[in-house]
Design a protein that fits this description.
The structure is a homodimer. Chain A is an alpha+beta fold. Chain A folds into four domains: about 210 residues, Immunoglobulin-like, CATH 2.60.40.1760; about 290 residues, TIM Barrel (Alpha-Beta Barrel); about 90 residues, Golgi alpha-mannosidase II (Immunoglobulin-like), CATH 2.60.40; about 80 residues, Golgi alpha-mannosidase II (Immunoglobulin-like, Sandwich). Chain A is about 20% helix and about 20% strand. Chain A is built from 13 helices and 36 strands. In chain A, the strands form seven sheets. Chain A has an eight-stranded parallel beta sheet with strand order 21-20-19-18-16-15-14-22. In chain A, strands 1-4-5-12-10-7 form a six-stranded antiparallel beta sheet, with no helix packed on it. Chain A has a six-stranded antiparallel beta sheet with strand order 2-3-13-9-8-6. In chain A, strand 2 and strand 3 form a beta hairpin. At the A-B interface, strand 11 and strand 17 of A face strand 11 and strand 17 of B. Strand 11 of chain A pairs antiparallel with strand 17 of chain B.
């Protein structure tokens, strides 16, 4: 069937389409992109061009002509990006099995969590190189990425073959390798076009920041979003919910948000988005009653529309070819269905005071959602819809509902993707391995998404404490009891320790809110992988120049690749107890001098230390970099309403000096986008605090501050 | 980016292209097929049209217009084939996790074994319906199949939605289902064209037979291929190999084929295909010396060509864009490279007497083989090459080497696909779960491939015995000691029992060879899933008419779906001990009356029985259908050479009557393809055997026969 053909010619050509977008940002549009959705088309906010333009200039990371592109006969774009011999590649989405992608093949395909293979809740096609640049494949398609895997015929970088079973007396050039190192990242995008964005940087963290800034900056949650969240059992009614909230107060457990699960709805799976009046006779009264106690309502939804919903008939013409749980899959790329749902949500929930949503089931196993070949009214392909449905829902809720109402929101979503950093939604999962949950905190920081290692239940008191401690150092501190019915105090022997860590979370609000401001305005992930921290500390990964084939020019050896510890805000290293390391573990300290958070005593520098739960009074291991200030509330609060105007204690670690820019705004509206925020420049000299306030129209948020020298 | 669009219209149209090929065979060519490879293009032999034409006529299984097709905007073909409410779908390749595919989504993508998801050594796009028809998607592309998964908007078959969390007093139409039953198989083929072949039948087995006949019939191994095989350790030399063969004889273990592993080659991974002279100074002498003892040589290869090979320079222009283990990937769709390799193999091996090959590494993880976007000189896409590379190698060896030399071959391959039934290669795997290995025997029978549950090593004597017993009732009875160095007698306490089962395998050669003849000429799988047996027995799955929406019209309830037992030849049911059921297990007997193979006593009918290893003297549980004859050698033989002309014992089960058509030919050449075979019509009446011989030019193979009434 194949005629004898001429010998193969290389079908890839150099990419020459690069256009410079800003400092360290280059874009090439390859092939036919007219019908393709770019993730940046769905971003919450426009790129932060002004911030980008103020960053240092960095050189384009590839030599001329080294990036190559081709179109396969079956209409897919192939791109080849060279790798140096010791270069490592990290990221490619919220993978729960680690950060390092070198030597792997990943299929970036939205799915209901996965460890290995690339299918995950956020299969973001963005990788960061150890040589301090990044590549973002900005096309909402299934993408298969070969990371340093594969050797092209004729490449001068190919190693010499090695006999696998040589006789004893035959010398070989080296050990036989199942995976001979490749010299490129090659990717195939399931489309006739591809937009690729190359992102330079001074460090790996700088690369991530520029990616986030290009995607609109990071999300800025309302202050209340950073308090403690509790989701009640799926079949709770209004009385049970009210009693649950009262018990938090009675037991002295902080609470900011109460989440209702599917039973609040008249029908779910598929959904009406209308109240189940047998359980919630007067939802408006419930919402305002709770709000009077400083507690906000969050509602579970999934996006599949029940025939019993009042908007079903009107939505039907705007739905895709396939149902999910027998509900419509509306095409929210289009204005009409988008307006229809937003209006329904506004009338039914937001006008009543509902603060936000948990968007479930937008990730989905293949057998739960629509097939890849499903069709939609807009012509958006089924696979593009699969890659972006979580983003479409986030866009609808964020832009059409909450920003339109000038109320910030914060919530959960089970699927996100590229260019999603400005959306105030935190990814969660049905997965529940504590080790994977920790990895998720690091992985999320490399791809512009937020992740919560929510607590649901535990096999032991100790596990419960460890999980509650972990989640209190995440973007969203939540107990999700939809199935278990657990309370924070359910595990009696650790109930006090659980209360203590939630109280610590509350006391850290000023510090954490400033970290989110840095995410919003500068793209700095508030919770970060250690590999970024090392980069930030300047010891490793500084970009020394162009790719030149030199081995290990950037001091990679000093990178801490640990994924069971992470950075929380600018200066706090968190190393939770988990799994088999339930009460004792090792902690790898990066460069710099590190101090125990609780006592202020020096614990080490660029070394691995052992920590034991007994020595810490069963508290979570926390370490602070020397010279850092940690602004905290002077005392615990029951919720974030009480945090406003509360006095501050500014902890000083590793001496008697330090500085911190404390961010303040109204904590709840979008006025900050018009400049209504301020920074309090806290400065401690010889143990004495002074402060000055930035010019600007911002309101005060916290109260008076005093320094506390630790150690 | 998407303009407001008109409401979606259904983009699928009825398939009207059906052409009738033969009895129960309809083909439609959909979309653009000019550049696509069909699996049937790569079949070993042409369809057995004459045999097909003699089968009963059956009606087309779908109502007019019920099969629909469409082309996605991204150039993929979608096909939709309706399912009845109680219809079940089985097959879709050599899946090691079961047979039933209803409710699953499978990605049929060649891979290095897999349990779940569809990636496997033989991702054959052929399914069999419980309503006794099959569908073969005859295009060598990645294919995603949704089996009764998904509900199209507007389908009258959609169930009514159910509230997942109703209040206690709200009645629901039924239980909430995570997977509401779908009413179709929908498949997306990664190509602009698709050839679909619908196969009717009287029973499910009949459907499978017609599929195999369309694909050229089944493989007919040489008689020696059905003897016992032993593969030596990878680093064995000629002396070690010779001593190993001698030890088989000394210990009284039958042996027909000795397999050499990679160390026989001057370089492997990538390969030269040239002898490692330090280990094999005179391979011709070794081969003829072994053959004089009745033992044949089989050589391990993988298809990736080392730069150290003499044919490397000449092959380079014919290689794909990417290397595997730094070796060339020749484009064996083309004549020149095919001739080049065949000539090299002939000169280096076949002319010396080598009997066949084990083709390794043609399945491959994504990270081991070429990327999907790799290019090849013929223009064959990388994914098509991935789906078919194992078949291309089988074709080269079978057609260009062995059939050309008029010598039958038998060997191993690690990847096959659609339309491969006539290739005399048996699939094996690096997987090693005994339960999965048993499932493989059933799964292979539904998709026209052969599978060996090879023994390699064991954690206990009992496990060793169980594995050796299983493999002796498979298409290829092999100990593969390439890594372990084990011998059949390595587990001392079971060495005699292992010898006994190998001897039983040898004694069953006449029975098994006839079963393979039925595979070759009539498409009947020699080892079969129980669901096919039930169909064959006539109790279930008879096709009663057109699809009519009636519930369960075919008595599906009587189907035995067990995958840890299987049929061996026409009448023997094999239920090995395995895993946690190492010495006791249940056996599900289909309709008919069943007898213990060893004693001839009645064990049951259409019921589940318990068997215990002690009761069987540690022999493998074997059961024979009442009325069957089992022709065996009267005594064990050391190898198949000794079987030729040997006397036969014809066992009679369940009475004193029976009939069996015993197939005979020369056992080694292709003369049977020209009619040089015969059948001995054995008939037992009141315990007395008579026989007549079919007209034909066939030679005698076995000796004189006497009946032995069992029980």
């Amino acid at each position: 069937m194949h005629p004898e053909a001429l010998p193969r010619t290389d079908d890839l050509r150099p990419v020459t389409e690069w256009s410079s977008l800003s400092r360290g940002l280059w874009r090439a549009t390859l092939g036919q992109m007219a019908d393709e959705v770019r993730y940046t088309d769905l971003a919450a906010e426009p790129p932060r061009w002004a911030t980008l333009a103020a960053l240092p200039e960095v050189p384009f990371p590839f030599a001329d002509g080294d990036v190559r592109v081709g179109l396969t006969p079956d209409h897919k774009v192939v791109i080849r990006l060279p790798l140096g011999p010791d270069e490592k590649v990290y990221g490619l989405g919220l993978q729960l099995d680690g950060l390092l992608r070198s030597g792997q093949v990943l299929t970036l395909n939205m799915d209901h969590w996965g460890t290995g293979g690339g299918r995950t809740h956020a299969p973001v096609p963005f990788y960061v190189s150890s040589r301090a640049y990044g590549v973002f494949l900005n096309t909402a398609r299934f993408t298969k990425v070969y990371c340093g895997v594969g050797n092209r015929l004729g490449s001068p970088a190919n190693p010499e073959p090695v006999d696998r079973n040589p006789p004893a007396d035959e010398p070989q050039p080296g050990p036989w390798l199942a995976l001979p190192p490749g010299d490129a990242v090659e990717a195939q995008v399931n489309a006739a076009g591809l937009e690729v964005v190359v992102i330079g940087g001074v460090t790996m963290l700088d690369v991530v920041c520029r990616y986030n800034l290009y995607c609109g900056g990071g999300a800025l949650p309302p202050l209340w979003g950073l308090g403690f969240w509790h989701r009640v059992h799926a079949e709770f009614d209004a009385d049970q919910t009210t009693r649950e909230v009262a018990e938090f107060a009675a037991r002295g457990f902080p609470l900011d948000v109460i989440g209702l699960e599917p039973g609040w709805m008249s029908k779910s799976y598929p959904c009406t988005y209308e109240w189940q009046r047998k359980r919630f006779a007067d939802p408006a009264a419930l919402a305002s009653d709770l709000l009077a106690q400083g507690v906000r309502l969050n509602l579970w939804v999934n996006p599949y529309l029940s025939p019993a919903s009042r908007i079903h008939a009107e939505m039907t013409p705007w739905a895709g070819s396939h149902l999910v749980w027998l509900g419509l899959v509306p095409d929210y790329t289009l204005g009409t269905p988008r307006r229809l749902l937003a209006e329904h949500f506004r009338r039914e929930h937001v006008d009543l005071g509902v603060s936000g949503y948990k968007i479930d089931e937008v990730d989905g196993y293949d057998c739960w959602l629509w097939p890849d070949h499903a069709t939609f009214p807009s012509g958006t392909p089924g696979e593009t819809m699969r890659q972006t449905y979580g983003m479409l829902l986030q866009r609808l809720l964020y832009q059409d509902l909450f920003r339109a109402a000038d109320r910030r929101t914060y919530g959960n979503v089970r699927a996100s993707n590229g260019a999603a950093s400005a959306y105030p939604f935190v990814i969660y999962s049905d997965a529940y391995d504590h080790r994977e949950y920790l990895t998720g905190l690091s992985a999320a920081s490399l791809c512009g998404v937020l992740w919560t290692p929510e607590a649901r239940s535990a096999g032991s008191d100790r596990e419960w404490l460890n999980r509650m401690q972990t989640v209190c150092f995440s973007p969203l501190a939540m107990l999700n009891a939809w199935a278990s019915g657990e309370k924070p105090w359910s595990y009696a022997s650790v109930a006090d320790a659980v209360r203590e860590v939630i109280e610590l979370r509350m006391r850290l609000l000023p510090y954490l809110y400033s970290a989110f401001a840095a995410y919003c305005f500068h793209g700095v992930p508030p919770i970060r992988a250690m590999i970024l921290e090392d980069a930030a500390s300047g010891g490793a990964c500084r970009r020394a120049g162009r790719l030149d084939g030199q081995a290990n020019p950037y001091g990679l050896g000093s990178l801490v690749e640990a994924t069971d510890q992470f950075m929380f805000g600018p200066s706090v290293l968190v190393a939770p107890f988990y799994g088999s390391q339930a009460t004792a573990r090792q902690v790898r300290l990066p460069a710099g001098v590190w101090y125990d958070f609780y006592s202020g005593t020096r614990v080490g520098s660029a070394e691995t230390i052992q920590v034991d739960a007994n020595d810490l009074g069963n508290r979570i291991p926390l370490f602070v970099r020397g010279g850092a200030l940690v602004p905290m509330l002077a005392a615990p609060v029951a919720n974030t309403r009480a945090a406003c105007g509360a006095d501050l204690e500014i902890r000083v670690y590793g001496g008697r000096e330090g500085a911190f820019d404390l961010y303040e705004d109204d904590g709840s509206t979008f006025a900050y986008q018009q400049g209504a925020f301020r920074y309090r420049h806290l400065r401690v000299v010889d143990g004495v605090l002074s402060e000055s306030v930035s010019a600007g129209a911002g309101p005060a948020l916290f109260g008076a501050a005093v320094a506390r020298v630790m150690g």
